[in-house]
Every structure is written in structure tokens, then in C-alpha cells.
Design brief:
Blueprint lengths: L2 H4 L3 H29 L3 H27 L1 E3 L6 H14 L5 E5 L6 E7 L2 E7 H6 L2 H17 L1 H28 L12 H39 L2 H15 L4 H7 L26 H15 L5
Parallel strand pairs: 2-4
Antiparallel strand pairs: 1-2, 3-4
Helix pairs in contact: 2-7, 2-8, 3-7, 4-6, 6-8, 6-9, 7-8, 8-11, 9-11
Length: about 300
């Protein structure tokens, strides 16, 4: 089945365009406020921010793999995994990404990279050991759908700027605690307080926007997996196994990988999620219901 037969998700594409536009506007306002408050040169600030964004763009796959502690594996090291990815890429008409393995008992997988030609797919040892081959294929097809839809790039860049706002928020807080409350002028509020409030506001808005696109992109990738493999029941089985096995993983191991939750196929949560607005993934029951509907449309068995 060629990629054009399932295509890129139009709803996801529109959401990515809208989210990117809103985030871009938000960060322009953010930069202008900081420029006026901190009274630094506009050109140096722009150079630094743009340089950091370009660095994140061109090294996103390497940074994500390094952050996860994952290792790129050769065909000799993981022949079955390479065979699976090659077969799915041929079905989806995608170039083969780099393949990595993350040594953790937490069953999971993620994709990263700036484009289909510069991407990586990573599976954990816990996933490889716990799932059947057809279930692993369903998970890999899900991750390849993320690459095909290019939503990984949007998530990576959006997360970068949200992280920048979070860093400035902490900077403002520490400056207030240790800087003696310096003021911009005699009548104005402390500079650290302005930086803290503006950065916190930017981070909160970014957080909500990123979560909105993050949830929808999981539905799109689930659908892509079902259409690539032609067997959504295997992805359903994989999701159920991953979710149930997660409760058996020690909290220490879950905490070690929680930083990758936005990219994982199923988040590694130590505690149950709060309101759906703040979840980076849709509720499992909704994902399974959507896949069951696709399976019925395809005439496939539904457990």
C-alpha cells in the first residue's frame, strides 16, 4: 500500500499550520516584551534565538535519541527490526529512517527527525520483548505515520520554544530570590517579576497549544498505522498490552523516561493523568474506540 493511498491527514495538517502560526505570533510578542524589559540589543537576541532554533532543527533526531539514551543499531545488531521497518517503509512509500533501541523495561516507541529523509524510529527493549511481531509492526507503522505527517518536527520546534520560556521563567524566579529585587527604574516593577510573569504566561499558552496538537496527532498516527498494515486489531492489541504492562514497571524506571512522554506512543505515567486538556495523549479508551471503528470499516475482526 503506497503512501498516497492513505496520505497525510488533512485535519492534522490544518492544525499544525494553525498551531505553528499561533506559536510563532506568541513568541514574536514574547521576544518583543523581553527586548523592551531587558533592554538588550534586538539583533543579538534574534541571532541567539535563531541560532538555537536552527541548531534544534538540524540536530533534533540526534538530540532526542541522546536525551532518551537510545543507540542507533545496525542490521547486524537487529536484523528482525530492520526487516520490519524496511517492509513497512516500502508499503508506506517512505525512505527508511535510522533505527534505534532504548534499553529500558518500559514498553514504548517514538519517532523523531525534521523530515522523512532525516528521521529515526526508536523502540525500547521492553516493547520488543513483550509484544508479538505483528503488534510490533503496528507500533512501528504508527511511528512511521508520525514521520509521514511531519508532525514530529512541529512538536520538536514547539517544545523547544516552550522549554526556552520555561528556562526564562526559572531565571526570573531565581533572579527574584537572589538578585535583591532590582528594578528597571524607580517607579517600575522589578525586571525579574516581569520576565517571570511573561515567560510563565507564554509557557502555559504553549503547553495548551502543544497538548491540543499532540492528542490529535496520535489519532492520525493510529489511523495511518491501521491503513499501512491493513490490520488495526494488532495495534489495538499492542496499545492494550503496553498500557497494562506499564502498571507493572517500577516507578523508578517510569520516572527515567517520563521526559519522552510527548513523543511516546503511550505515555509512561507514574500517576494517572488529570484533565484531558492537559494530557499529551488521548485517553486509551478513545483511541481503541477509534481504531475499532476503522477495523469495522475495513471488515477486520474487533476483539
Amino acid at each position: 500500500m503506497k503512501r498516497r493511498s492513505f496520505g497525510r491527514d488533512a485535519g492534522l495538517t490544518m492544525r499544525m499550520i494553525l498551531t505553528s502560526g499561533l506559536l510563532g505570533l506568541l513568541y514574536v510578542i514574547f521576544a518583543v516584551v523581553l527586548f523592551n524589559v531587558l533592554n538588550v540589543g534586538l539583533v543579538p537576541m534574534l541571532v541567539i534565538v535563531i541560532a538555537m532554533a536552527f541548531f534544534q532543527y538540524y540536530t533534533s533526531d540526534k538530540l532526542a535519541l541522546a536525551a532518551a539514551g537510545a543507540k542507533v543499531v545496525s542490521r547486524e545488531e537487529a536484523p528482525q527490526l530492520h526487516d520490519m521497518v524496511e517492509r513497512l517503509c516500502a508499503m508506506a512509500d517512505l525512505p527508511k529512517p535510522k533505527i534505534a533501541v532504548m534499553d529500558t523495561p518500559v514498553p514504548n516507541a517514538f519517532a523523531t527527525g525534521r523530515s522523512p529523509k532525516h528521521a529515526a524510529v526508536c523502540v525500547t527493549t521492553g516493547l520488543w520483548e513483550r509484544l508479538e511481531p505483528r503488534e510490533v509492526e503496528g507500533v512501528l507503522a504508527h511511528e512511521l505515520s508520525h514521520i509521514a505527517n511531519r508532525d514530529v518536527l512541529v512538536m520538536t520546534l514547539a517544545s523547544f520554544f516552550a522549554m526556552l520560556a520555561a528556562m526564562l521563567t526559572r531565571f526570573g524566579l531565581y533572579a527574584g530570590m537572589w538578585g535583591g529585587g532590582n528594578r528597571r527604574d524607580n517607579n517600575g516593577p522589578p525586571v525579574w517579576l516581569i520576565v517571570f510573569l511573561v515567560s510563565m504566561l507564554v509557557y502555559v499558552i504553549s503547553f495548551i497549544l502543544i497538548r491540543m496538537i499532540s492528542r490529535y496527532r496520535e489519532y492520525a498516527a493510529d489511523r495511518g498505522s491501521a491503513l499501512i498494515t491493513g490490520a488495526p486489531e494488532y495495534l489495538m492489541s499492542a496499545l492494550q498490552k503496553i498500557s497494562s504492562q506499564m502498571t507493572l514497571i517500577p516507578n523508578r524506571d517510569l520516572r527515567q523516561v517520563e521526559g519522552m512522554n510527548a513523543f511516546f506512543i503511550v505515555p509512561a505515567k507514574v500517576k494517572s493523568a488529570a484533565a484531558e486538556l492537559f494530557m499529551d495523549h488521548p485517553p486509551m479508551e478513545k483511541r481503541l474506540a477509534a481504531l475499532a471503528e476503522i477495523a469495522r470499516e475495513m471488515g477486520r475482526p474487533v476483539a
